[in-house]
Amino acid sequence: MALFKNLSLTIAQIALLTALAFGSDRAAQWLHLPVPGSIIGAIILFALLKSGTIRLRWIERGANWLLAQMLLFFIPPCVGIIQYEDIVRTNGVTLLAAVMIGTIVVMAIIALPSAVIQAGKGRRRLRRHDEVSHS
């Protein structure tokens, strides 16, 4: 029964994160924003977590599962690029530079909220430890 509950909770959290991703992507398209929907979604999720509207435990299992499966999300594009060998030969360096710069920018944008969330978790643990010690 616990396995079913954990699985259901993880699926619900993944559904919530997926809905946020699709919604932010659609909003970026509808508003004709020059920023990808994934970045807007990350900013919205950070704001919701920081404001307390969404608690980390509400999405943590699903987010951890998605992170663990991340390699699977990169395999199809890598396999698909084989079909465009001529484009890779003529523009490979430009494509590689764009991918590297894009990756660095996304990592930098995601690193700050992640660091803030981790610091908050550490402070909460420390407060709980202090409360238990003083009891």
TrEMBL record:
Q: Which Pfam families match?
A: LrgA
Tell me where it resides: Cell membrane
- Highest taxon of source: Bacteria
User: Would you tell me the protein name for this molecule?
Assistant: CidA/LrgA family protein
| Residue intervals passing through the bilayer | 33-51, 63-84, 96-117
Coiled-coil residues: none
Keyword Transmembrane helix in the entry? The reply is yes
